[in-house]
Amino acid sequence: MTTVTLHATGPVDPGEVWDRFVHPARWPEWSPQISRVEATAPRIAQGVTGRVHDPLRTSVPFVVDEVSDAARSWSWQVTVGPTRLGLAHWVSAGPDGGTTTGLRISGFAPLVLGYAPLALLAIKRLVTITT
What we know:
The protein is of the alpha+beta class and about 130 residues long. The chain is about 25% helix and about 45% strand.
């Protein structure tokens, strides 16, 4: 098992970043590797399941493990073939305003290391894209 932790800081307000996280329909706005999301609820909560679709027309199932609105953190698992990735996200106020977000990815080393650059791009977009 390998774990990688990523961080990104940008000008978007923490409340907006959190809203972008908790509504799966918004994930394609900032995550270029996601073209659409099917979820059993419009807002993430413990036990919500679904599928994340990519631009190549493949998809992977997910389940949300836990969500804390107070801490602005959540975790989920994505199944890729016979393996699982664990992803833990958090959002906090940035040092000079804006937001710092973090992501910890755990799982099968080649999968974690292969996904990390895409994940970093996504969380950078999450905190920098203004609408």
